[in-house]
Write a structure and sequence with these properties.
The complex is a heterodimer of chains A (about 300) and B (about 325). Chain A has about 300 residues and is mainly α. Helices cover about 70% and strands about 0% of the residues of chain A. In chain B, strand 1 and strand 2 form a beta hairpin. Classes of the chains: A mainly alpha (about 300), B mainly alpha (about 325). At the A-B interface, helix 1, helix 3, helix 4, helix 5 and helix 6 of A face helix 1, helix 3, helix 4, helix 5 and helix 6 of B.
Chain lengths: ~300, ~325
Amino acid sequence: MTAPTVTEPRTVTLTRQKVPWADIVFKLMLRLCLLIAVAFLATLLIYVVYKGWSRLDPRLWDNFPSIRRPERAGARSALYGTLWVISLTAVFCLPVGILAAVYLEEYANPARWYNRMIELNIANLAAIPSIVYGILGLGVIARGFGFGTTILTASITLSLLVLPIVIIASREAIRAVPLSIRQASYGLGATKWQTTWRQILPAAIPGMATGSILALSRAAGEAAPLLLLGGLTYVAFLPDGILSEYTVLPIQIYGWISQSREAFHDLSAAAIVLLLLVIIAMNSIAIYVRNRAQKRW
Amino acid sequence: MSSPETTSFPAAPKGALGRTRSRYGEQTIRVVLTVAALVSVATTVGIVVSLVPPTVEFFTAVGWREFFTTADWAPLFDPPAYGVLPLVSATFLITLIAVVVAVPLGLGAALYLSEYAHRRTRKVFKPVLEVLAGVPTVVYGFFALRFVTPALQEYLPAGLRPDVFNAISAGLVMGIMIVPTVASLSEDAMSSVPRGLRDGAYALGSSTRVVSIRVVIPAALSGIVASFVLAVSRAIGETMIVAIASGNKPSLSLNPLDAMQTMTGFIAQAGSGDLPTASLDYKTIFAVGALLFVITFTMNFVSARLVRRFREVYE
């Protein structure tokens, strides 16, 4: 190797002159990942609305389903069934979920093995496939307890399904209430429950409501467990009580998708739009509650 | 605590400040709260109780060897055959397709949101991912069957046209469905990597790309891997997409263009009918359900362990 002969002094620049192609390509690829997901969502929504547009009229929520005449079929019984099932699910899972969250945050001693086991168990339940809950509902609630294929069975099963979500969301809301509130309450001589009931729960309600509504909207879209629980597709009557037979929108949609005639596919797309509207309405309420009642400590 | 006798203070007048009667209300409430917390434990017990007896009865009638080693699944036919392998292979094939889609997309989206995006961009796109996670799976199934499959049939070359029911479109759509699972958990892990690590790398002249690949991903690796495992577990347990889009024909085929039935697809199909409780058909649902439960439970356990064991703790 010979030493290079320097003919003229080199100017050294501190800024980079080469175009950093690798960096640019990398950034574009990452952005593409996000865009693919967003584009997929947009395509899905546009396609469903486009496909269902011709059937998005009062027939959809005024008429009962019909196997023979798709042009007169509607999802009236499914819409009412969904409202029944979701309301009853809320009645079951909200109190249990919130009380369980209060126990874990305010009362439980996290060092005890049984409290750690409860926490581990909740985390595990959140990840069990929904159809396994359907098996639980079929084996234990419908046949074991003898509740049959009714709205009651469906609601209990869905309550158990979304319970972990309600508990996790409620715990976060309770945890967000600062310790000083509790100490002030105890300092004034309040008991543990008085502190919880009069100070912590009111402060945590917006957060709990948001999480709970999101959990219920998940239940509203759930079909798999109800397939096993007799979510009949052709129900030509409105539910008249918690022991009534029922169908819900996701099951009705599934039934129509399985039909071979094209008219039913348009109908299922229209019912999907209806289902999405129900879920969007619930989510909007959740977001409204969150923004409206959010407290800054 | 030392006993009051060791100090020289006069004993406090009894009953002046505290209550002597115990607070029954407070105790009752404690019991009620504990019962509410135990509902979740009862759920797990209920799942096990609902699965075990029919599964045991199933295996006394059929035998482990036939279930796990033969490759013909036709429980509702005469003569019946109970080889679960076609359902398992279909489940894992569709899961594989979904993971191949979801892992790069989810990881890329998470990296973009955590390292590149402005706060305002993040505020727009994080809710979009939440919406993607909130779409009911029956809607994804409809989209797979009525949009993705016809599109594949139209645009793929002649030799690669999928059947009306096929694994590929179910897998693709399921992949998009689990992108939010991967993205949001990975992003959580990435944003908990301390600022100082990044600043150190930037001070040495690294570009954002180098910081992302060499610093952020290694530091957040346990969370990222846990998100993958959870995504796999969700894909294995997903029912409606495969019930709608991949068909009801058990098949050992590993060709993603063919129709096939997964474990969840079988449970949905067989469970939709009103089977008599004593029949072997009814117990078959529980046997397949037990297998599904064991597989997903194991994966969730692994995921939780990964997060705990390999987490880098930064103060």
